[in-house]
Design brief:
Layout lengths: L2 H20 L19 H21 L22 H20 L6 E3 L12 E3 H27 L3 H4 L1
Antiparallel strand pairs: 1-2
């Protein structure tokens, strides 16, 4: 693994760790609780970020531009039926490990073809692995902040106080 990739993954791991702190001691019935005007829930955030890890890992390892299953499915922002805190956290940790392993095998400048987007049909984009990892870091950090606000509104817990 290059020092650059290791540096990006270190920042990504910290954002992931904060998300997991935010969901520590969460009860299963709190996964679907809407505590703000937003429709985001802690279960939906965990589900979405798990999907994001899997989707971007497939893009950086496949490089053909095939659209990963469920990439555009807006249901990924919802808590899956029957989900548990333990199950969602485990799935997220497994997806994160797979991302780290895949990123460690590829040089940061290697380019991957991105899937065609529904809003720009026919446009082909290529991103280097570093940009994919930085995008995943940005997505994780943004939703970790969302999760912290949702959790604090549910029961007062927050990642800053729980670090």
């Amino acid at each position: 693994m290059t020092p650059e990739t290791e540096a990006i993954l270190t920042a990504l791991r910290e954002a992931r760790r904060l998300l997991l702190i935010t969901t520590t001691d969460l009860k299963d019935d709190q996964l679907t609780e809407r505590s703000t005007v937003s429709e985001l829930t802690l279960g939906g955030i965990l589900n979405h970020l798990t999907r994001a890890e899997r989707v971007w890992t497939q893009i950086l390892t496949d490089t053909t531009g095939r659209t990963p299953e469920g990439m555009w499915d807006t249901g990924q922002y919802l808590t899956p039926g029957g989900a548990t805190v333990a199950g969602l956290r485990t799935a997220y940790e497994e997806a994160a490990r797979a991302t780290d392993e895949a990123a460690g095998r590829v040089r940061p400048e290697v380019e991957a073809r991105l899937p065609e987007t529904p809003w720009e049909p026919g446009v082909v984009r290529h991103w280097p692995v570093r940009r994919i990892l930085l995008h995943l870091l940005q997505e994780t950090a943004q939703h970790t902040g969302h999760a912290d606000i949702v959790r604090e509104a549910i029961d007062g817990a927050n990642s800053t106080a729980r670090r």
